Amino acid sequence: MSGETRGQPAARGGRVGYFLRMYPRFSQTFIVNEMLELERQGVDLRILAQKKPDDGMFHESVTRVRAKAGYLPETLTGCLAKTWTFFRERFGKGAPAYGAAWRACVLRRQAGLVDFLQAALLVRWARKHKVGHVHVHFGTGEATVAMLARLMGGPSYSLTLHAFDIFRDNVDRRLLAAKINHSRFTVTVCHENRRWMIENLPGVVAERIRVNYNGIDLERFAPAGDGIRRANSADSEVGRYVENSADSEVGRYVENSADSEVGRYVENSADSEVGRYVENSAVLGAGPDAASPSLLGVGRLIEKKGFIDLVRAAGLLRDRGTPVQVRIIGDGPEEAALKCEIERLGLEQHVKLLGPLQQDAVRSQMQQATCFVLPCIRAADGNVDALPTVLLEAMACGCPSISTAIGGVPEIIEDGVSGRVVEPGRPVLLADAIQSVVRDAEIAERYSLAGRRRVERMFDVRRNVATMRAWLTGSAEPAEASAVETQAPSTVAADAVRGA
């Protein structure tokens, strides 16, 4: 079946699988949002992940995903134990395909033995659960496994490529091109990504790469009821995270399938880190100067988010006589460096690091803030942000937003129309943009309204996922049609060796 069949109805195809590196993952709300909307639109999903969560934190929305999930063994010993019988039973029927997969990736050092064995387990899982097509987020190891599985006669696959899996200096560009070329289709989240890949990935087939923006739930992320952002409302529910309600599903993820290896994550331990979020009203309430404009930043505390420039911009604004209150939500390896910079500039009373918060609390902060700031930069390893979901969420909440000319950000914000876009890595320019918004209520209101309209027009999760649904269901062939016996494995494998 070729990629040209993508518009055919779901009833014709088989079940769609999502193959992920880790599930669930606190920072990857966009994947959960996509799966929830696909399920709402009637797609029958299954989930397979290479790893169980390692941080014990996830959003409430995970509890609403109906798809059953399973996990692959992570160790060589575990993979060998699971694959021995499979290879013994199947190798004779698909020897050319398995041999080609081995030559194309393992012997050429483009993958490891665990990848090869996990690919065999993916083939078996897809067959068992009648999954005819798998979708993979990110072009790293999980995409390698999906390609190997296809070479073994397993399900067809598609990719969504984001940012670090494209731009980091250690990305094997030839291997990434091979993964794209052997996919049914590859989605990326902005036009800038697509342009860069076509220009920089050797031999990539441009027609394989499509653009589909991440979408957000416009009903959930919306301006506050009265349309006014209340930075210091006494009755705010920011930071309130109910864990003890008898009927609450929050923080609970239970896989009831008897035959799966899905983990069980339940908040029931007094000293557990699961579901632990900042609730301190002194931090989330009014700062020492409640009249000061409030700036909000949200994201992992990693270099590419550029939060150190936000801290420096806050220092510049204080020195100019325009003090602001900055709140940064998230955690990560840059936390210590940010704290040092806050102390160096004497901004302890102006900049607060709130740690990770649940989505409802983040949304409430977005509805209250004077301005949302995401000062993305290019990291030392080449990593950049492509299409930051938090920027879409802030604009949907009516929060005037400022970011930088990195990746797909200019595709989100029209500078001077629906927000501000400044040169990355320039705290002075960032401070100028912030000052222009917080000092002029008319400009702030114009950006608030125009930002919401732009997100409604371009980033509605229902409309954008409907496009993905058409692509996925058109590729989801019945599982038996992708079995080894029905392939011409030597042809598939030969193509892979030439393209890898």
What would your notes on this structure say?
This protein is an alpha/beta fold and 500 residues long. It has 2 domains: 3-215 and 461-499, Rossmann fold (3-Layer(aba) Sandwich); 281-458, Rossmann fold, CATH 3.40.50. It is built from 17 helices and 13 strands. The strands form 2 sheets. The protein has a 7-stranded parallel β-sheet, with helices on both faces. Helix 7 (191-200) links the parallel strand 6 (185-188) and strand 7 (209-211). The longest helix has 31 residues, at 76-106. The chain is elongated. It starts with 14 loop residues before the first strand and ends with a helix. The relative contact order is 0.15.
The beta-strand count equals 13
Order of helices and strands, N to C? EHEEHHEHEHHEHEHEHEHEHEHEHEHHHH
CATH architecture of the largest domain: 3-Layer(aba) Sandwich
Shape type: elongated
The total domain count is: 2
Poorly predicted runs: 1-13, 226-283, 480-500
Percentage of residues in strands:
5-15%
Strand line-up across the major sheet: 3-2-1-4-5-6-7
Helix content percent band:
25-40%
The total of helices stands at 17
Q: Mind telling me the CATH class of the largest domain?
A: Alpha Beta
Mean pLDDT over the full residue set = 80
The H-level CATH homologous superfamily of the largest domain, spelled out, is Glycogen Phosphorylase B
Using only CA atoms, what is the Rg? 24 Å
- Predict the CATH topology of the largest domain: Rossmann fold
Give the N-terminus to C-terminus distance in angstroms: 21 Å
Largest sheet: 7 strands, parallel
Q: Indicate the structural class.
A: alpha/beta
